[in-house]
């Protein structure tokens, strides 16, 4: 299967995909990496792995619709089977989501449905939560609201702050995201309506806990 990975930043999750593909634990090829920012650190990671890169700067477009249409057109020649949002910090239009519905995944740094949107770790700290984490979910029209697939929990400890928590959560993200993609690549994961199915069975509303995954 061919993957397209969309980034806006450092690309540590992209690196986890590069490593998993190279190691063979994720039987897929990254066909292209697309960034909306020319300065995204992840572009160098892609180039180091000989993966084609595209930069499409959203600021050059008059509307979200025009930007998203340009991305769909640019991705088309690569014919991705699965599109991975890996720290891609743009809200997508319904047209983009429709173009890849059922084969569009995102990772969000919270235990969804808690804390959609930004500043997730600070919000978890402010709420006095004892656990933070990250969730991989199918992307639907609702922002960070598509059905969860897999999550990982990270304990909040005494003296934590948002930056420390983000670092610990990201380490789990790098395990979590390739695992969810592997299920898709193996043909085990599907979006049916607004439900995520694994091996034909609906997943729990919060997804599966990574620590309980056997295969
Ligand atoms: C990740 O922590 C991801 O969960 C978050 O951006 C970071 C990207 O890091 N995504 C979002 O906040 C999406 N709303 P990376 O560029 O090092 O992979």
Instruction: Give the strand line-up of the largest sheet.
Output: 3-2-1-4-5-6-7-11
Total strands: the figure is 11
Small ligands present: glycinamide ribonucleotide
CATH architecture of the largest domain: 3-Layer(aba) Sandwich
Percent strand equals 15-25%
Distance between the amino and carboxyl termini: 19 Å
Q: Strand count, sense and closure of the main sheet?
A: 8 strands, mixed
Can you tell me the overall shape? globular
Oligomer: single chain
Gyration radius, to the nearest Å? 16 Å
Q: Say which CATH homologous superfamily of the largest domain is assigned.
A: Formyl transferase, N-terminal domain
Give the arrangement of secondary structure elements.
Blueprint: E1 2-7, H1 12-23, E2 29-35, H2 42-48, E3 53-55, H3 64-75, E4 82-85, H4 94-100, E5 104-108, H5 120-126, E6 131-138, E7 148-155, H6 162-185, E8 189-192, E9 195-198, E10 201-202, E11 208-209
Parallel strand pairs: 1-2, 1-4, 2-3, 4-5, 7-11
Antiparallel strand pairs: 5-6, 6-7, 8-9, 9-10
The structure holds glycinamide ribonucleotide.
Would you write up a description of this structure?
With 215 residues, the protein is an alpha/beta fold. The chain folds into 2 domains: 1-100, Rossmann fold (3-Layer(aba) Sandwich), CATH 3.40.50.170; 106-215, Rossmann fold (3-Layer(aba) Sandwich). Helices cover 32% and strands 25% of the residues. It contains 6 helices and 11 strands. The protein has helices at 12-23, 42-48, 64-75, 94-100, 120-126, 162-185; strands at 2-7, 29-35, 53-55, 82-85, 104-108, 131-138, 148-155, 189-192, 195-198, 201-202, 208-209. The strands form 2 sheets. It has an 8-stranded mixed β-sheet, sandwiched between helices. It has a 3-stranded antiparallel β-sheet with strand order 8-9-10. Strand 1 (2-7), helix 1 and strand 2 form a beta-alpha-beta unit. Helix 1 (12-23) runs parallel beside helix 6 and helix 5 (120-126) packs across helix 6. 41% of the residues are buried. The mean pLDDT is 98. Bound molecules: glycinamide ribonucleotide. Glycinamide ribonucleotide binds at residues 7, 9-13, 42, 86-87, 107-109, 134, 170, 173.
């Amino acid at each position: 299967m061919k993957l397209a990975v969309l980034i806006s930043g450092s690309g540590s999750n992209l690196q986890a995909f590069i490593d998993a593909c190279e190691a063979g634990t994720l039987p897929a090829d990254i066909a292209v990496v697309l960034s909306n920012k020319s300065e995204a650190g992840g572009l160098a990671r892609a180039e180091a792995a000989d993966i084609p890169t595209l930069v499409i700067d959203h600021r050059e477009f008059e509307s979200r619709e025009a930007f998203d249409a340009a991305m769909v057109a640019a991705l088309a020649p690569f014919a991705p089977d699965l599109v991975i949002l890996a720290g891609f910090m743009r809200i997508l239009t319904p047209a983009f989501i429709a173009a890849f519905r059922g084969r569009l995944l995102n990772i969000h740094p919270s235990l969804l449905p808690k804390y959609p949107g930004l500043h997730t770790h600070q919000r978890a700290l402010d709420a006095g939560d004892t656990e933070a984490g990250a969730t991989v979910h199918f992307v639907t029209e609702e922002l960070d609201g598509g059905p969860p697939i897999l999550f990982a929990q990270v304990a909040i400890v005494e003296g934590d702050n948002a930056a420390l928590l983000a670092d610990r959560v990201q380490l789990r993200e790098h395990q979590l995201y390739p695992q969810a993609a592997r299920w898709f690549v193996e043909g085990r994961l599907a979006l049916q309506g607004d439900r995520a199915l694994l091996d034909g069975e609906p997943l729990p509303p919060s997804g599966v806990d990574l620590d309980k995954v056997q295969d």
